[in-house]
Structures are given as structure tokens and as C-alpha cells.
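Support case: user asked for a sample of complex input and structure output to validate their parser. Sending the pair below.
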Amino acid sequence: MSHTPHDIFQRSSAPVTVDESRCIADKGCTVCIDACPLDLLAIDYSKGKAYMKYDECWYCMPCERDCPTGAIKVAIPYLLR
Ligand code: SF4
Ligand code: SF4
């Protein structure tokens, strides 16, 4: 994958975090995985929870918006707000 402008941002953690206490992937939900146009999210089947597999986020937001339980939080870098 080519380098894109977001590579310049310094981050201490992944831009997309999943509140595992809210995530219902273990009940069969795959909404965020299906919503992400870049296929960045995946389900950790050992835990039954979604997580950010690839740190290449476009901050397009459907994962956070469409999650039925509000488990996803996308941290938009300050410079993009
Ligand atoms: S959409 Fe929400 S509840 Fe469903 S798998 Fe993703 S984080 Fe979990
Ligand atoms: S904000 Fe967009 S690119 Fe980033 S994880 Fe969510 S759906 Fe994927």
C-alpha cells in the first residue's frame, strides 16, 4: 500500500478502539467489519470481539456510526478536525 498523508501523524494507539464490554461480535455482529471500505477491522474469534487489524484509517466513520451498540470510537487526529 502506498504512503498517504495520515502516515505523518504521531499516535500512541490505534485510531479506532473497540469497547469490548459493548461489542456483540460474539453474538454474530459483523456490522463494522462490513462497513469499513478498507477492511481494517476484523473479529478476534478467541475473544469474540472486533478490533482494528490494520492501522490505515480514513476517518470516514461508518464503523462508529453503524455499530449497533456504540462500541466503536474513532479518534480523529487533531489536524483533520
Ligand atoms: S459493529 Fe460494534 S458490536 Fe458489531 S462487531 Fe463491530 S464493534 Fe462489535
Ligand atoms: S473510520 Fe472508516 S476507514 Fe476507519 S476503521 Fe472506520 S470505516 Fe474503516
